[in-house]
Amino acid sequence: MAIPDKSKLAPGLYLVATPIGNARDITLRALDMLRDADVLAAEDTRSLRRLMELHGISVGDRPLLAYHEHNGAKMRPRIVAEIAAGKSVLYASEAGTPMISDPGFDLARAVTAEGLEVTTAPGVSAVVTALTLAGLPTDRFFFAGFLPNASGARKSALRGVSGVEATLAFYESPRRVAAMLTDAAEILGDRPAAVCRELTKKFEEIRRGTLSELAASFEEAPAKGEIVVLVGKGDSEKISELDIEQQVNLALETMSVRDAADFVSAKLGVKRRPVYQLAMRLSEKDDG
C-alpha cells in the first residue's frame, strides 16, 4: 500500500513491529507511523505509551485502544469501522512483530475481509533474533509457537513436528522450559539445541547443548525472562532401516507395540508412524 505524504497516512491497518527488549530496536518508519496514525491500538497500551514517550512521541488526543485475545471479538468491529470511515489505524503487539503468536492475526484478517488495506512496518522478531544467535542451521526452520502446558499434550505436539526436516523454534515460559526440554529429548531424540533468553536485554543469555544437557541445566539453574527454544534437525537420514528394525525388535521384548514405537522414534529421531507400522508387522510375525 502506497504511503502518501510524511504527515498523513492513507486509510488502512498498519501493523508495526516493536522492540522485544531494547527500546532503540525500532525503525524510523515505525516511529513515523506512531506519530501520524489517526488511531492507535495495542496489545498492551501501557507498553506502547511508554515506548512512544521514550521516543518523544505524544499520543495527544488520539484514541488509544486495547486490543488483545480477551477483547478481540468486541474490538475488531470498531477498528474495522474506523478504517472504513477513512482513518489510519496502527496496531502494535506487546513486543516484536504483530501476527507472530499474536492476536493481530484475526484483526488483519477481518480488515482484509472487508476489502480494506493492510500494511506493515517490519522490524524485530524474537524467533529470527534467536536464529541469528543460536548457531543452528538457518537454511530451513519451522516455527511452532507455544507448546501445550500439560506434558501429555506437549509430547503429542512434539511428535507432530518430529519429522520436520528443519530447525524447530518454540516460545516457552521460564517456568516450564526444563520440563519442555525433557519432553523434547524423549520425543525428538537428544538433538543439539539452544535456549535463547532475554534477547536484546541487559541479561541476554544463550545456552547451547543437547536437549538433555539443557534440561539438566535449567533444572539446576532456573531462569527468568522471555525464552525461545531452538532444536536442531534430527539425523534420521543417517539411520538405516536395519538399525530401526533391530531397535524395534529389542524394544518389543519388553514393551507393547505402541510403547516400542514411541521409544524407538524418540531414541533415533525418526518419524513415529513408520516405526509403529514396522512394530505392528514384527509383532504379528512373532505371534504367527
Task: Describe the protein.
By secondary structure, this protein is α/β, with parallel strands linked by helices. It has three domains: 12-124, 3-Layer(aba) Sandwich (Cobalt-precorrin-4 Transmethylase, domain 1); 127-234, Tetrapyrrole methylase, C-terminal domain (Methyltransferase, Cobalt-precorrin-4 Transmethylase, Domain 2, 2-Layer Sandwich); 237-287. The protein has eleven helices and ten strands. The chain has a five-stranded parallel sheet with strand order 3-2-4-1-5, with helices on both faces. The chain is elongated. The relative contact order is 0.11. The model is unreliable at 2-6 (pLDDT under 50).
The CATH class designation of the largest domain is Alpha Beta
Class based on secondary structure composition and strand pairing: alpha/beta
**How large, in whole angstroms, is the Cα Rg?**
23 Å
CATH topology of the largest domain: Cobalt-precorrin-4 Transmethylase, domain 1
Give the beta-strand count.
10
Q: Note the gap between the termini.
A: 68 Å
**Domains counted in the coordinates: how many?**
3
User: Helix segment count?
Assistant: 11
Corresponding CATH superfamily of the largest domain: Tetrapyrrole methylase, N-terminal domain
Low-confidence stretches: 2-6
Annotated CATH architecture of the largest domain? 3-Layer(aba) Sandwich
Spell out the helices and strands N to C. EHEHEHEHEHEHEHEEHEHHH
Function: Catalyzes the 2'-O-methylation of the ribose of cytidine 1402 (C1402) in 16S rRNA.
Family: Belongs to the methyltransferase superfamily. RsmI family.
Subcellular location: Cytoplasm
Catalytic activity: cytidine(1402) in 16S rRNA + S-adenosyl-L-methionine = 2'-O-methylcytidine(1402) in 16S rRNA + S-adenosyl-L-homocysteine + H(+)
